[in-house]
Amino acid sequence: MPGGTGTAKLAPQVRECHNVAGAYEYLLRVEVADLSSYKVFHTDILGVVPQVNSITSFVVMGSSKDERA
Predict the structure, then answer these.
(1) Cβ distance 29 to 15 under 8 Å?
(2) For each of the chain's 69 residues, which pLDDT tens digit applies?
(3) How many C-beta atoms lie closer than 10 Å to residue 16's C-beta?
(4) What does 32-63 look like in DSSP terms, one character per residue?
(5) Nearest-CA neighbor of 10 among 54, 49, 59?
(6) How many CA atoms lie within 13 A of 50 on its CB side?
(7) What is the pTM of this model?
(8) CB 15: neighbour CB atoms within 10 A?
(9) Spans of all domains in the chain
(10) 7, 12, 16, 30: least buried by Cβ within 10 Å?
């Protein structure tokens, strides 16, 4: 996903794509209906991109503050 192109721009599940410093190269905010839908995204969309060597997922269980409107 160099430059935030490719899958991140085409997949409607990807709501945000950020190039970040640290242990990971990209941070994606993905919105799906449920975990079954996420598994499809993970396996059939993001998982088949040749440039993606690994995927680490964090599931938000709740938010004490979220100012995105």
Answers:
(1) yes
(2) 554 457 778 899 999 999 999 999 999 999 999 999 999 999 999 999 998 999 999 999 999 999 986
(3) 12
(4) -SSHHHHHHIIIIIGGG-TT------------
(5) 49
(6) 0
(7) 0.79
(8) 12
(9) 2-48
(10) 12
